[in-house]
Design goal:
Blueprint (H helix, E strand, L loop, with lengths): L3 H14 L3 H9 L4 H16 L4 H28 L5
Helix pairs in contact: 1-4, 2-4, 3-4
């Protein structure tokens, strides 16, 4: 079954192929806000405890899918710049 990540990565692939070094650096510099990190951590903790509501589960899955796509872009950016770490 295709995921949102699969779908989005198909559309992002051509963009990633044309990244300039400056764009790659900007992508690698982007970080989530502390508020967003805290929310995702809260949802992850609730998921591990088995206490997510249906709405929270959908929200958490969304964040996971988005993180996968961002990870793909950052991997492409690191490759372009010759970086091997985060």
């Amino acid at each position: 079954m295709a995921t949102a990540t699969d779908f989005l990565s198909t559309y992002l692939e051509p963009l990633a192929e044309d990244l300039t070094p400056q764009q790659a650096e900007k992508i690698l510099a982007i970080r989530p806000t502390d508020k967003l990190v805290a929310r995702v951590q809260e949802l992850g903790d609730k998921s591990n405890a088995g206490t997510l509501t249906e709405h929270e589960r959908l929200e958490y899955e969304y964040y996971v899918d988005v993180d996968d796509v961002i990870g793909l872009l950052k991997t492409k950016a690191r490759h372009l710049l010759g970086h091997s770490t985060k």
